[in-house]
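>> received
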Amino acid sequence: MSWWERVKQVLKREAADVKDMAKSGFESLDAELARKERELEASPAERVDMLLEQTAAEDERLAALEDKVRRRVSQADGTEEISQVVEPEHAVREDPPDPPDPELAGSTPPPDVATTEKAPPEAESWPIDQARPWVSVRDTTSDDGMPEVFNHAVAIADQAGSVLGADGIAAVVDDVDFHPLVLEVQENGGLWYVRAPTLATSEVNELFLDAIVARLPPPA
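>> returned
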């Protein structure tokens, strides 16, 4: 692949991401304008009902955030307790090495003394572009049969499942669900529905890709 073709691929991906973000923004704006129109045309009693519905939705969102914060705090506390290792009293402490002799500082040790330690090779990682076809994200529609609060539908290819397994896919979903801007993730009909009103489809796509690449075993 030539350099120019790579540049064109990058530009196409960026254009697609910008298009998705613009589409999401326009849809959110249309929904907000429609809600304002309904409020203007509603009677006083209907306005009270709308306010009650908005308050209930906000309470539900805050409860979800509170639950996520509590889970993160408990997880962090457990990690901190494990990391605090107390050195046993009978442990043998190694003395620090002697300082180098100034007279020999500039000399080279003999071959039988000099040792060369080779650093272990770094494990290769999967490129994110290789895993990109494994994830596709779109906006939810009424045909999905999910509550309106879920605004993203995510499909994970079978190839990712064959590499990671069911437990690996579940761990990927947990990693995405722990993101502070993701309120909830549910599975329905082979798709994962994400409740993240502040994230565009391209951003949700990158969240799943990063989680999958982080869980992939090193390539052979």
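>> The chain has a mean pLDDT of 77.
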